[in-house]
Amino acid sequence: MKAAGSNAISGLGPHGEKATPPERLSLSESEAAEAHRRRFEIAVVLHTTSSDWAKQQLAGIVTTLGRYSAAVVEVVDCNFDVVRQTREIERLTRYRPAAIVSIPIGNAEAADVHRGVSQAGIKLVLIDNVPTGLLPSKDYVSVVSADNFGLGQMAANLLSPHVPRGGVVGIIAYGVDFFVTNERDIAFRKWMAAERPDVAIKRDRFSTVEDAARATDALLRANPTMNGLFAVWDDPAMRAVKVMRERSRQIPITTIDLGNDAAIELARGEMIKGIGAQQPYDQGVAAAKVTIMSLLDRHTPPWVVLPGLKVTATNVVEAYQVVWHSPAPPELMKSRRNGERQG
Amino acid sequence: MTAKETTELQMPQRSKPRGGRPTNAAAALAMVPHRERVRAIDAERQSLATIFGILQARKTSTRQEIEELSGLSRAVVADRLATLLRFGLVDEEALGRPTGGRAPRLVQVKAAAGLVLVAVINESLLGVGVADLSGNLLVEHHEPIESNGGLNGMVSRLETLFDWLLEQQQGRRRVWGVGIAVPGPVEIAAGQRFGVAGFHFAPNREDMPLVERLAHRYQAPVAVRNAVQMRTLGELRAGSGVGADNLVFVELGREIVAGLISGGRLHRSAQGTAGMIGHTATGEEGARTCRCGNVGCLEAVAGVEAIVDDATHAAKEGRSRPLADVLASEGEVTVSDVGVAAQRGDAFSAELLSRCGRNVGTVLAGLVNAFNPSLIVLGGEIAATGEVVLAAIREAVYRRSHPLATRDLTIVRSQMGSSAELVGSAFTVIDDLFAPDFLYGWIAQGSPRKHPEVAELIARAEAKERHRHSKAPQPPAIGGPVDESAA
User: Fold this and answer.
1) Residue A210, Cβ neighbours under 10 Å: how many?
2) Least crowded by CB within 10 Å, which of A252, B24, B196, B261?
3) ipTM of the complex
4) Are A238 and A265 in contact (CB under 8 A)?
5) How close A252 gets to chain B, by Cα (Å)?
6) Cβ(B222)–Cβ(B161) under 8 Å?
């Protein structure tokens, strides 16, 4: 088993591809000069533009494309709505930018519209999610992703020391068929089964973030002796924290994504004990590079993956700086100081 | 026809409307003597199979089209469709194009009525998926194989992942079949359907009867087939090969193996070993001895190990600066590194891949002359390195083949990766399930799980599993089924 927190990539791509690290993406001086000369136009389609993750991702994309004289002609916020995404991509396909960078919302329902982008002769670069059935080179150029399998293993590794022998661990899994969260769920279970076979795993699923509270509640009712919890991303994790507090329970939780609230909870030394963090800015940089490479007809790797960062109360402030490219907010600093005093 | 079969044949008569009133056909049958009743049931089963076969082949049909194509009366078609609808095997929700009046309803096979679990296993990777009855993968997942779990650990992991897929799809009771793509030849008898009974995962591994173990666990027929053949079938049905009748798929990896499609059908060959082109002599006398014991085999001069060896030597001897840098930072050089270096203008890497391509192309030219395909699909790690190797393969094939054989020949790189084996495995199972003679055996029961052959297979599997467990307790699995009681 590869060490969690190392730079090793644990997961394989959606079609079993081996991961290519972003360091392998490079453009020669002559290629950069050609990109400057051709002044590509690129559209970006995101599930949302309001989350910190999306803002950083977009910043990485826009900054890097700018360096190659490529213009971001439009950024679409789909507000997590696959119907809206379909409509917007159809409109963009008619507008015919040179490339579209997109995060498909959902699986089967997002497949056809994304397939249509390549069919219209527009390069398509995917972030994180590949609808089942779409193929690299044919339907899209590359998918640029976090190592979600590695992140799931990391979350299990971080939770394990807080779970007693023979304990019960709950998983709050996403009930929607989504490659990213599927990989985290599978990896968490795999790590636990291999390294902590004494632990019993129980699971409930939520279909919307709001539903995560109900899923937590159901898990707690069915498993009153639960000793640990894994939530597949930070927002449902914080909903779980709220439910636990309401029920006066104190259960160790690990999750993925270094959102503000989860980071503060971690720094305070409260229920969140560890986080596997993505690097959205760097992921955006990689997505932009792949886009330019494909527009220059360079062969592009089908599966570009960035390793996760292992975050605990000890390194949360530094990790925040790495992930968000900005200083930790005062509230996080205060939480860390309080956490240190209590610890 | 035995008494037992007669009883089974009468099972569809249980399919009364929910209110309990027998169908017209059932009521009528109760009034006639036994022998005629058997004949009538047989006719009913035949017509059900005919109608379902038409729907399976045509994807959608109106009732009128079914009547025309089957030659059955409107009343019979209506009665049989009612049965199929009741079984949940077809739906009639889509609307066709109106021809003057109201838009006709379209009848189609309900792809979600059954699920097929599929997997690909090779030396380094385990891929799993679940497909619907149209062969579409609904979910797939690939992961590296852990070397420390052994054979039993790997099969346990496969079962854990299958269980997870079924939890996701809430489909444990809808498993109609399991298809597994494995490395190496799998000998199939002529007309053999589904699993090779008693197939053991590795030679002399009596403790790993894969077919029986999975059939017992999922209560469904299991097909085990050679991975390259499955990948070839996947390319034909869902990849670059759609529409091609004569196709060659070539896996360019550690092994170099070809799969052949002739006249739209997979060529399985006498012992299942067709396509081992990696053991064709190239005439090059390299230092490497092939797995087969010979020297100069294509695999030994152009396979992954040959490329990695040559690249590593070049990196150590300073003949390639980019490869030396990779070796220094990563501790090893991969085929992918050679591809990246070639793309960025490293002369050594470009020549290494070109030489590999020329050797592969020369061997393929012989195959092209003998087999005359219209399409060659190249897959595997070496094909994924990019255009340098592809260009060299194309050049050698076109130069060394007869001009007539290459007149309409296209050579492309595969885009499906390991998904191709999953899709091929799904279609292998689906094709067997819907083969007319097999369909006839289960259609009146509403599910292939009730086919006498499947029931026998499952019973045999259960007996074998009981025997195996009584002889030796199972070692602990890597990850057992997950309790979802709270969900």
Assistant:
1) 11
2) B24
3) 0.88
4) yes
5) 19
6) no
